[in-house]
């Protein structure tokens, strides 16, 4: 007798948000049937974004009330700007019918 695989009744869509106000967009990374896979990815993604943002923060200063890259570190601007645009990663559950 063969065992039947249990078919998941949910799909977990992993996404992150980037941009501000009118240019805000949601980037879908992948979809999975395993909640644990989605949770692990989201946790790791958010941890890495925070780590790298904090690293590049040392090259910034406050200007007009906003953090800006110091003039002597222009090579870091692009990466810092990309990281500061990412708000967070998350997963959403979609039930199948």
Number of H- or I-type helical stretches: 2
What is the approximate shape? elongated
Strand content: 35-45%
Q: Alpha-carbon distance between the termini?
A: 28 Å
Number of strands: 5
Read across the widest sheet, the strand sequence of neighbours is: 2-1-5
Biggest sheet architecture:
3 strands, antiparallel
**Average pLDDT metric:** 85
Unreliable stretches, pLDDT < 50, 5 or more residues?
Answer: none
Instruction: Briefly note the structural class of the backbone.
Output: alpha+beta
Q: What is the percent of helical residues?
A: 25-40%
Regarding quaternary structure, what we see is: single chain
Number of structural domains: 1
SSE order, one letter for each helix or strand = EEHEEHE
Please give the radius of gyration in angstroms. 19 Å
Question: What would you say this structure looks like, in words?
Answer:
It is elongated, with a radius of gyration of 19 Å. The protein contains two helices and five strands, in the order E-E-H-E-E-H-E. It is α+β, with helices and mostly antiparallel strands. It has one domain. The mean pLDDT is 85. The chain has a three-stranded antiparallel beta sheet with strand order 2-1-5. The protein has a two-stranded antiparallel sheet with strand order 3-4. A hairpin with a 6-residue loop joins strand 1 and strand 2 (25-32).
């Amino acid at each position: 007798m063969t065992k039947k695989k249990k078919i998941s009744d949910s799909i977990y869509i992993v996404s992150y948000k980037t941009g501000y106000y009118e240019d805000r967009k949601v980037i879908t990374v992948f979809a999975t049937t395993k909640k644990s896979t989605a949770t692990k990815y989201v946790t790791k993604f958010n941890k890495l974004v925070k780590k790298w943002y904090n690293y590049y923060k040392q090259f910034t200063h406050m200007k007009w009330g906003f953090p800006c890259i110091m003039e002597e570190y222009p090579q870091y601007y692009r990466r810092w700007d990309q990281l500061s645009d990412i708000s967070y990663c998350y997963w959403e559950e979609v039930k199948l019918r």
